[in-house]
Request: fold
Amino acid sequence: MAKNTKEINERAFYQNFRFFILPVVFFCFYTFIYLLNPYDPFWNVYFEQNIYTLLTEWLGVMVICFLITESSLLIARWLDRHIPWIESPLLRFVCQFFLQILSASIVISLLLYIDHLVYPHYDTYSQSDKTFGWQVCMVSIIISTLISAIYTADFFLRKWKMSMLETSALELKAYDLNQVAMQAELQSLKAQLDPHFMFNNFSTLSSLIAENPESALLFLDNLSKVYRYMIINLSRDIISLRDEIKFINSYIYLIKIRVCDNLQINIDIPENYETKGVPPITLQLLIENAIKHNVASRSRPLHINICINAEGWLEVSNNLQLVNFHIPSTRVGLKNIISRYRLLSDACPQIIENDHIFIVKLPLLEITE
Reply:
């Protein structure tokens, strides 16, 4: 079916090409003849001929143009099947150029022979007639070559358009596949957040059940609220900083139960930055990471600052007072944040650490929804 459609389109193209090229060839024929010898006496009396003679001549020239055009197109189409440009460009050029000259010479020779049969009393030709015949032959070869060049240029143009369309289709398909892969990886990274969050808080809840059952119930109630909030926002790739801060304010309650006043969290976000976006649960992971790896006691409180720095990035910092024992890690925290930013943005989080402070700088994202 596709092949039949292609053949129909090619036939339509050749018909339109002939309709366009014949008037051009007719005009070029006279133009080239004139340019080869503009001082020929023939041109002085050309329009003094009667209308019948002019129409007869124009009809004859149109026949010449038609034959040259058809022979040129026939050669080009035949070579398309047997010596394609893509496979053997040099051989194709030589063969096409030679055949165009041969076909044009045959057409003119045939017409001169017919002319001799129609007008047998013209047994001899003057020098002017011979010159004019030679000019007609040369012009026919030039026009035949020109038609071939136009056809070839159109062939390459259509191939280029087809190649561009195929390339665009492949790029679009690759983009779609990449998006699917990115979304799958992003969903996988999001899924890692739940066990990480629940592991830490269930550990606290387990301790509270044994130490203070009433606080454990209150903690469980707030944990369910925070967890419900997480479920809602984890369905999104990016959430506003305003929503993330609301979540953190709720989450701080759970933290306070675990570490009491040993943790001080300061949040200073200008209102005009609250509409910017971050990956969901990013701040919770950073706070959790700081608490996990640092001492937080009454004598050595842990200070966490969340603010917008001079570069317009979200900055989360804490004083560095690392614990002295090894803590098993699921390696979800910072790695998860960096991986999600890699999928969502060209900008990557920056991590700065020295003997006294640990800083994570997060680029703020645009919310497109």
